[in-house]
Design brief:
This is DUF533 domain-containing protein. It comes from Sphingomonas naphthae. The protein has one domain. It is 91% helix and 0% strand. The chain has three helices and no strands. 15% of the residues are buried.
Length: 66
């Protein structure tokens, strides 16, 4: 279940990067989940770290701009 949540968050981050429709992010999120499952706990850690880094950068960027 955690893998599905991380996959959805990764898909959302990918979709935000290009700003087009959500289908591309959803498909890449599903692909990310399958890759993370094959890598085991290390894959979940890498996916979670990617999402956390993007969220941290977005939050940090919002503070300096305002």
């Amino acid at each position: 279940m955690i893998g599905k949540i991380i996959g959805a968050l990764v898909g959302r981050e990918i979709d935000r990067r290009d700003g087009e429709g959500g289908a591309k992010g959803a498909v890449l999120g599903i692909a990310a989940v399958s890759v993370m499952r094959r890598l085991g706990p290390l894959g979940l850690l890498a996916g979670g770290a990617y999402v956390a880094k993007k969220a941290y950068d977005r939050r940090k960027g919002g503070r300096t701009a305002g």
